[in-house]
Design a protein that fits this description.
Blueprint: E1 5-11, H1 14-24, E2 27-34, E3 37-43, E4 46-52, H2 53-59, E5 74-79, H3 82-94, E6 104-105, E7 109-115, E8 121-127
Parallel strand pairs: 1-4, 5-8
Antiparallel strand pairs: 2-3, 3-4, 6-7, 7-8
Helix pairs in contact: 1-3
Length: 135
């Protein structure tokens, strides 16, 4: 079996979250989805599990973080161009996401930040390694 990553996120409104992640380009895998959780696919190896608070709590041993108030983690998605970054960001903003700061340009990388409806923070970026500073 190939190595995969499943990011599990507690969400307050499952359908709103599915709409948001779908707007970013994730697709739903119904095989691993039910009324309390949805498996959203980014690639053949990367998945985001959107779980109701009740379902998430059944796996967790600590209280659910209030991600609308505090950052619990930063998740990053690499894209193929700045245009793709901007396009996905606009779709995410239209689907209820918020952009807490302006685009950052590091010369070799352009990065934008979007928070989902629950405040989970995603860094959406394009990196051109031909422009990476040589040391």
């Amino acid at each position: 079996m190939a190595k995969q990553i499943f990011i599990n996120l507690a969400v307050s409104d499952l359908q709103k979250s599915v709409s948001f992640y779908s707007s970013l380009g994730f697709t739903n895998n119904p095989q691993f989805s039910d009324d309390s959780g949805k498996c959203m696919v980014w690639s053949e190896h990367i998945f985001v599990m959107l779980l109701s608070h009740e379902k998430f709590s059944s796996f967790a041993t600590k209280p659910i973080a209030k991600t609308a108030e505090s950052v619990a983690a930063l998740y990053s998605l690499s894209l193929e161009s700045v245009e793709e970054v901007n396009s996905i960001m606009e779709k995410g903003l239209q689907a209820g996401g918020t952009e807490p700061n302006e685009m950052r340009d590091y010369g070799f990388m352009q990065q934008r930040t979007i928070e989902d409806p629950d405040g989970h923070t995603w860094e959406i970026f394009f990196m051109d390694m031909t422009k990476f500073p040589v040391q």
